[in-house]
Design goal:
globular; Immunoglobulin-like; mainly beta
Length: 132
C-alpha cells in the first residue's frame, strides 16, 4: 500500500497544491504517511496540527465521496522540525467494499481565521485493488 505525493503540481493539472497517486489494497489497513512542507516557506506547515484534515475517495463521475476520513477518526498530523506528516490509518473494514480507480483529495480547514480557511493540499488517482 503506497501513496506517492508531490507538493509541486503541474499547472493546469489540478487546483490543489500538490498531486498524489498510488494504489492500496481493500483487504488490509491503509497505513501510509505523506510528508510535506509549506510550499511558500519550504519548512513545517505552521499550526497544521490544530486544523481539521480531510481525505476523500470518490469514484469518477460521482457527485459525493464514497469514503471520507478526518482527523476526528483515522488521520493524524505530526509536525517535525522541518516538515509536516499526514498519517493515514484507515481500517480494512472501511475499504472492503471499494474497488477500482478513485479520485483522492486531501484538504485542511483552519477555523482560527475569519473567514475559515480551506486549503486543497493534494489531488490525484488512487487505485483500490481487491487484495491485501
Amino acid at each position: 500500500m503506497t501513496i506517492h505525493a508531490s507538493i509541486t503540481s503541474n499547472p493546469g493539472q489540478t487546483g490543489a497544491i500538490g498531486t498524489l497517486w498510488g494504489s492500496i489494497g481493500n483487504a488490509a489497513t491503509w497505513w501510509d504517511d505523506i510528508t510535506f512542507r509549506d510550499p511558500s516557506t519550504g519548512s513545517v506547515v505552521t499550526s497544521a496540527s490544530s486544523w481539521t484534515w480531510t481525505l476523500t475517495l470518490t469514484y469518477p463521475g460521482d457527485d459525493f465521496p464514497t469514503l471520507t476520513k478526518t482527523t476526528a477518526d483515522d488521520l493524524t498530523i505530526s509536525q517535525g522540525s522541518s516538515s509536516t506528516t499526514l498519517q493515514i490509518r484507515v481500517p480494512e473494514d472501511d475499504l472492503s467494499a471499494l474497488d477500482g480507480d478513485m479520485i483522492c483529495d486531501i484538504y485542511s480547514l483552519d477555523t482560527s481565521q475569519t473567514p475559515d480557511r480551506t486549503r486543497h493540499w493534494f489531488h490525484g488517482t488512487v487505485s483500490v485493488r481487491n487484495e491485501p
